[in-house]
């Protein structure tokens, strides 16, 4: 199973990253981003927090996938320019009031050049098993901050995204399992048909012999029986 309810603390860092990437790739193969409920969340986040850009992102080892968005057209960004790769290392909301004054970002091309990002806020999307797949995040082109109410709102919305993503994963896993069961059932039907045919064949031969005897053919030699079997 891809989802478990407890954090797997016995796994090494590389093993956990491997499992995290499996979950990210699994979600990238779905079309969850086309569901209106996810779009509603980013629009609500942008409105409540009064920021022009709100995103739901997923991060693999090479890319920052922008799956649901308002305020930008990009669908993917390089991992090295991602603000979100820092946010998923946190356990709660990460805020960058002014990226030009933050040593992690002041040389970032998104800060130094177009579009000139200044403000960032991101909440890691951490599943119940502890894996952080991406963020619900905000951007602004001017230095900014969030009020306490806005911080709470963004965090609550991120929890809702996590809940919906876990439902999405479970739904896809269930469908996959049902497809596998159906495939196995179809195979069993084919096997049963073949076995039934194999069983009927000698019975047909026996019935033919019985019919011959009943109709007065008393001498049925071994060669003829071999031909019938």
If you had to describe this structure to a student in words, what would you say it looks like?
With 229 residues, the chain is α+β, with helices and mostly antiparallel strands. The protein has two domains: 13-175, GAF domain (Beta-Lactamase, 2-Layer Sandwich); 193-229. Helices cover 49% and strands 17% of the residues. It contains six helices and six strands. It has helices at 13-28, 36-49, 84-87, 109-112, 148-214, 222-228, and strands spanning 53-59, 63-70, 76-78, 94-96, 119-126, 132-140. A six-stranded antiparallel beta sheet has the order 3-2-1-6-5-4. A hairpin with a 3-residue loop joins strand 1 (53-59) and strand 2 (63-70). It starts with 12 loop residues before the first helix and ends with a helix. 27% of the residues are buried. Mean pLDDT is 85; it is low at 5-9.
């Amino acid at each position: 199973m891809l989802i478990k309810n407890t954090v797997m603390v016995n796994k090494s860092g590389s093993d956990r990253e491997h499992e995290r990437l499996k979950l990210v790739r699994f979600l990238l193969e779905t079309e969850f981003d086309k569901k209106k409920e996810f779009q509603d969340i980013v629009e609500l986040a942008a409105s409540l927090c009064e920021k022009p850009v709100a995103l739901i992102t997923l991060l693999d080892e090479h890319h920052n996938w922008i799956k649901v968005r308002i305020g930008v057209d990009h669908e993917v960004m390089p991992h090295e320019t991602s603000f979100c790769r820092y946010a998923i290392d946190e356990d709660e909301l990460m805020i960058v009031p002014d990226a030009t004054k933050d040593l992690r970002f002041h040389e970032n091309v998104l800060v130094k050049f177009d579009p000139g990002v200044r403000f960032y806020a991101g909440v890691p999307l951490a599943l119940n098993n502890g894996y952080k797949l991406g963020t619900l995040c905000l951007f602004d082109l001017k230095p900014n901050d969030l009020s306490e109410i806005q911080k709470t709102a963004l965090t609550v919305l991120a929890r809702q995204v996590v809940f919906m993503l876990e439902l999405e994963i479970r739904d896809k896993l269930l469908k996959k399992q049902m497809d596998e069961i159906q495939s196995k059932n179809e195979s069993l039907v084919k096997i049963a048909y073949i076995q039934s045919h194999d069983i009927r064949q000698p019975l047909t031969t026996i019935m033919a012999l019985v019919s011959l005897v009943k109709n007065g053919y008393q001498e049925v030699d071994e060669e003829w029986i071999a031909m019938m079997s």
